[in-house]
Amino acid sequence: MKKLTFAITLILITVLLAACGASKNAGSPAAGAGNGGQGKAEVREAGSASDERAGQNGFKKLGDEPLNLTFFSTGATFTDVEFEAMIAGPIHQKYPNVTITRITPAATTTPEEVLSTHIPDLIFGSVQQRVIRTGVYEDLRELIARHNFDLSRLKPIGIEYIKDITKGKGDAVLALPFNINQHVLYYNKDIFDKFGVSYPTEKQLTWDEALDLAAQLTRTENGVHYIGLAADNLTGLAKSLRQPILNRETGNAGLDTPEWLRIFELQKRIFEIPGYVTPDKTWNWTRDHFMKDQVIAMRASWLANMVGPLEELRQQGVDFNWDIAPVPNFSDQLGKTRESQIHALAVNSQSPHKDEAFQVIAEILSDEGQRIIARNGRVPAVINPELEEDYGLDIPVLQGKSVQNVFIGEPIQEHYIHPYQAEITVRLTEAAEDLAINGLDVNSAIRKATETINKDVETLRTTLGQF
Question: Starting from the edge strand earliest in sequence, which strands make up the sheet with 322-325, in order?
């Protein structure tokens, strides 16, 4: 009898131990390992994929507990209205206990200064080399894998540009594209009407045609001087031909090419339009001249550079009659627009909330999140043509505009931005000034800019190091 009792007791203990072991393994990160993922498939049938991933990988699910994340833009145009409409508002609406607060430093503060005193969880903007040097970008590859984020949903023009930044240098993924910042031609209908000139249409103009229009619209009327075309000068025109300022391999000036010669020649022709350069030697026509002074008839520029600020201006009670056409290009490049800048979202390498910050990015890059940015005037970063049909629907300043013209022409992937480029871009501004008011011909301006850039590069090799 004692032997029978002992045997039963032993069996019960064995069963209990087996049950405890099974329960423990069900919540373990290794559950399902070694069986081709069968364990994971079974868990997915019982619950959601996100629940299973959170349990197995040990990260906190967004919204499980109250959380405040901080956000910082490194310089790309992104108004407070856009931030609230596209990021903070939608996330808080879906996760009421999650708030995203924007860090807004003084206008003169550099990104490096902000990042030395703050640890924003989320970083927005183009992936700049100067910001990379701070070490602030988290390599997202581990987070991408842990959260099963599908990179194939992203437009190649965006994700391939970001991958190219670190190609052959560790291959880190420093950010994910938020939107594709394409170029368009903005035009002021009132100025066209004033001088009896027909508006641009959905037909992409050649630069020759654009300059013909600009010549008709550059004039003085009732003491107001109007300029026919602003095209962001040499740096903007170069984006038509995807031309880097610096050679990727050597770091030296890359201006000695047939393409750069075409760009300098076009810039010279623009400056030679009668009245373009004023008697007081004003030659650099900017966004404020178009939006606030309203003396520019046409301006070729990025979408994000203008749409958000125009909406803010409208909310301040300032509105005027403008529209959108495809951006011009060289005659042999029609069908293409310009290099598209990639605005991206990144996770701070020092953030204590990396998983939650990445989940915010994943929400914004969902079809639902990208539909919100499309409706608010940003071109989505994901592959889904249906989203483009919703472009601009929720932003009042775009109502009645020819928004379909945003999608005419193929945007070009932005060239690799050399680590020295931000420090030497000013030399192209100087070269444009030499063409505009200092009497230099095209070849002389290219030669002078090349020599000056190469001297700068020698100094940068010492101060920033070799790349």
Answer: 219-221, 224-230, 296-302, 183-188, 322-325
